[in-house]
Amino acid sequence: MNIAPTITKHYQDLNDAQRTIVAHLDGPLLVIAGPGSGKTYSIVLRALNLLLLGKALPRQLVLCTFTEKAAFEMRDRLATAARKVGYTGDLSELTVSTIHGFCNRILLQHRHRTNLGHGFDTLDELTQLLFIFEHFDEIIGPAENGFFLGRWKTRWTAIEGARGYFNKITEELVDPAQLIASADPFHVAIGHAYRRYERALLNANRTDFAHLQRLVYDLLSDPDTADAVTRDLRYVLVDEYQDTNYIQEQLLLKLTEKTRNLCVVGDEDQSLYRFRGATVRNILEFPQRMPGCKVVKLTTNYRSHRAIVERYDRWMASADWSNPHGPSFRYDKTIEADPAAAHPSYPAVIAIWGKDRRDEAARFADLVDFLKKNEVIADYSQVALLLHSVREEHSGPYLAALAAKGIPAFCPRARAYFEIPEVRDLVACFAVLFGWHGNGRGQVGGAVAELAAYVDDAIVQLGRRFGAPHPLADALQRWTGEIETPEKSETLDLRPADYFYRLLALDPFKTAVRNENTARNLAIFSQLLSIFQSYYHYTVVTHKNREFLRFHFFNSFLRLLYDGGINEYEDPDQPFPKGHVQVMTIHQAKGLEFPVVVVGSLSTQLSSPKQIDRDLTPFYHRPPFEPENRITLFDRMRLHYVAFSRPQKLLVLTAHETPKDHFAPIWEGLPQWPYVQKDLLAAQRFEARERMPVKKTYSFTGDLKIYETCPRQYQFFREYDFTPSRSAVIFFGLLVHQTIEEIHRIALDGKLDTLDEPRIRELFERTFRFLCLSDVRPIGDAAKEAAFTQVLNYFRQNRDEMRRVIQTEVDVSLEKDGYILAGKVDLLLGGDGKLELLDFKTSPRPKDSPELIAAYERQLCTYAHILERRHGKRVDRLMLYWTSEPRKEDALMVLPYDPKRVEEAGRYFDETVRRIQAREFVVTTPPEPAICRECDLRLLCHAEGIVGAGDMGRASNNSKTRPSRPLPSKTD
C-alpha cells in the first residue's frame, strides 16, 4: 500500500478499510463512515500521508468540515499526528475550515474580481433578517389586498418567509428570470423581490452565507478566474458530506474539475440538515457525479457497547429504504461493534416509561442519581439527555426533576437568555430609560404583548430591589430626563450602548461582571446593541429620533429576539462543564459521544419543511429525489439514529406516551427502569475521555497591543467579547490603506500597465463609497483629497517596485506549543531570492518618538519571526512606509535587521500569551489618562477605584451638544 513508513510504524491499529483510505492517492474517493468508525482519524492520516509522500505541499491541501469547532479540532489532531510521525512541514499553510470559511478565504484573496468592496460584511441569520427589515420597502414592497408578496400578512412573517426563499434560490442556483417569467403570481413576486434583495446587498457592500458561496461559484465559472483560484490546489477532503447542499456540491466539483482529487466522507444515515437546505442525495449520488470513484465503507464502531450497536443497526435497517427509480436511499451496510473490545454483560439498552411527564422525568433523575451514587459514572457530565428541542416546555420537567435531587444540569441552548436575572434587569433599565413602559407604551397586542408582559414584570422586580434611594434608581431618573429634554436642534453625544456601559458601573451589574459567566452573557447584550445601532442607524440619541428609537428597539428589534429566543453563553473550551448533566438537542449532539445517553422526544410529532421545495422544485437543476410522502419518516429515522449512536456504555430511551410506530423495533422488549438488573449495572465503571481544548489564536494587533495598553480592556473586549460603543477605526487610514491594497492586487494580476490617475481615482472613490457604508465616521472633502494625494504619491514613486510584490494583506500564522501566532502583513516583496516585509502607516513620520518606533519594530519582528519559521529563510529587510510623506526618501524607513531582535520578539509574544492564558488581568498601573478617557470601561474602573476622577475626562462632560461637522480624523 502507498502509506508512508512513519505512519505504518506509529499507527499499527488501522483496520483494512482505514488503510485503504489512508493509502488512496489520486482520483475521487467516497467514504461511507458509520458512527464511531474513526472517520476523522482516517481523514487526518490520509492528509498527512499525502504530505509525507510529497504528493502535495500544505498550501495545496484543503480539509472542509461542517462546523468551525470541528475544523479547529481537526486542525489540532492533524498537528498532533504530524508531531508523532515527525512531519516538519508548515501546517499553518494548510486550510482546515468550513465550506463557508473556505469560500470567505477565496473571496478575500480574489474580491477585486467581484463587485464586492473592501471590508464587505457577511450577514448571519439575525442580521439577514434585520437587513431585509432595513430595506423592507425596497425589497418586499407594500401589501396588496392585505398580503405582502401575495402570501404573508405581517411584515415580520414576510421578512422571515422571504429570507427562506432567498437563501433557497441562491443555494439551488435558481435563475430569478425563470421565476419572473412564470405564470404563477407568487413566483413572479418572489423573483422580483430576490433581484431587489441582491441589488440591495450589492449597494450596501454586504453578502449573506448563501451568496458567499454563489460569489465563489461565479468566480469558478469564469475560466481565467477559476485558474487563478485553483492553480495551487491539489487535494480537497470534505467531512460530513451528507449535510452539503446543491451549490456546495457544485463548488466542490468545480474546485476539483482538473485534478479530480475530491474525497468526500459522510454517512447518509446521519443527514440532519434538510431544514437548512442540505440534501442527502449529494452523498448517495456521488458515484454518478464522479464516475470511477472508489467507495470505501467504515463499518466498525469503536465507540459503543455491542448491544447498543446491534440495537440501532437493526432498527435503522427495519425501515424501507428502497428506491424503484434508482439507487437505494441508504447504502447497504451493517455496523458492527469493535471485535477486539470488551463488551461486559449488563443492561446496556433500557427504557424509561412514565405514567406522565413528571413521573417520566422523576424516573430519569432517579437513574442519574443511581449511576452517580454507585460510582458507575464519576461525574454528572458523563450523562447527556437528548431532546428534539430544549426550550423550557420540553426540557423543563427533566431539569426540575434533576434539581429536586440536587443534580446540576447544563442546558445553555434552551433559548432562555432573557431569563438570566442580569439580562432581565438590563432590559428593564432600557425600558425605563426610553419610556417603553406603562401608558407610554400604549396598547400592544400579538407578539409584542408577550414582550410587554415580560418587560412590565422586569421593571416591577427591578423597582423592588433597586428603588430610591439606590444609586441605580437615581441614575435612571437623571438619564431619563437627559434623554427626554433635548431641544429640536440638540443631540446627545450618546448611543444606546453608552448607557449600557454607564449601567455596568452600578449595581447590580458592577457586581455581576465579577462572575465570568455572567460577564460573558452581558457581553452578548453589548453585541446586540451594536447590531441594533448599525442596522437601525442610531449613531446618537437626538430630539427627532427618540420616539423612533424606542419603537424600533422594543417593538421591532427586541421583539424579534425575544420571540425567537437567544441562547446563553457557552464556553467553547469547556462545552460540557464538569458536575452537570448535559441537556441538549439531538442536532447539537451530532459528532459527540457520552458514556450515558438518554433519548427523549419519542412521541413528538416531527415534520419536514416542504413548502419552499414545492414552490421552487420546477426551477431546480435536478428533479425531485426522495418521494415527498416518505421524507418525514426518513428524517425521523436519521435524526434518532444520530441520537441512538452517541452513547458509549448505556443507551436509555424515555417516554410517557406511546412512541411513534417506527420506534417499535428498538423500543419493544427493552427492560424498563427501575426494573432492570441493577446489580449488573451498579458493578460497571464508565470512564470518560478528557476533551482537549483546541489551541487559541493570538495576533499582534488584536491581542498583544490591547493587552499591553490595558489588561482590563483585554479581559472585557477580547476575553469576554464585549463590543465597544463606538468604532475605534479611523476612516482616513482605512481609505489610504485599502486603496493601496487594490493597486497591489491589480499589480499581482500582472495588469500594472492598466493603472493611471483616472483608474486610481476610480478605485479610490469606490473604496470611499464602501467605507461610508460602514460604522466609521467619514471625513470631509479636504481630508478626502489629502488621502487621494497620499495614494497617488505612493503609486507614482513606487510603480517600478510593485513588480516585486509577492503578496499583499498576507494572513500569516505559526503554530506554537500552546497557541497559534497570527498576523497580517501589509506587503511582501521579493526578487533575487530576497524576502522583504513592509508595513504602511498613514501618519507623518515621527520625528522624536523612539517608543513608537520601537513598538512598530517589535510588530515587524513578530511578523518576521512567523515568516522565518514558515519559509525557513531570513527576512532580508523590515520596512515602514509613511504615506503622508510626499518624498519617498522620507516615507520609507528601513529598520536594521537583527536576528536577536526577531527571536526576542517571539519570546516577548510567548510571555504575553502566557500572561493572558494565566488570566493576569489585574491593572497594577493605570494606562495613560487619554486612553482611559476614550474607554467604555472608564466609569466601571472609577467605581472600582482602578482609575481616579482626574482620568475620567469625557465621562464628566455635559453630554448635550449642538450639531457639528464631523471631527477631523486621527492618524494611526
UniProtKB/TrEMBL annotation:
InterPro entries from the UniProt entry: DExx_box_DNA_helicase_dom_sf (IPR013986), DNA_helicase_UvrD-like_C (IPR014017), DNA_helicase_UvrD/REP (IPR000212), P-loop_NTPase (IPR027417), PDDEXK-like_dom_sf (IPR011604), PDDEXK_AddAB-type (IPR038726), Restrct_endonuc-II-like (IPR011335), UvrD-like_ATP-bd (IPR014016)
Record's catalysed reaction(s): ATP + H2O = ADP + phosphate + H(+); Couples ATP hydrolysis with the unwinding of duplex DNA by translocating in the 3'-5' direction
Key words of the record: ATP-binding, DNA damage, DNA repair, DNA-binding, Exonuclease, Helicase, Hydrolase, Isomerase, Nuclease, Nucleotide-binding
Enzyme Commission (EC) number: 5.6.2.4
Domain UvrD-like helicase C-terminal span(s) in chain numbering: 316-591
GO MF: helicase activity
Residue span(s) of domain UvrD-like helicase ATP-binding: 12-305
EC top class, as a word: isomerase
Annotated spans, Disordered: 951-972
Family annotation (PROSITE patterns): UVRD_HELICASE_ATP_BIND, UVRD_HELICASE_CTER
Binding site for ATP: A33, G34, P35, G36, S37, G38, K39, T40
Family: Belongs to the helicase family. UvrD subfamily.
Xref: PANTHER family: ATP-DEPENDENT DNA HELICASE SRS2, UVRD / RECB / PCRA DNA HELICASE FAMILY MEMBER
Name of the featured protein: DNA 3'-5' helicase
Lineage per the UniProt record: Bacteria, Pseudomonadati, Acidobacteriota, Terriglobia, Terriglobales
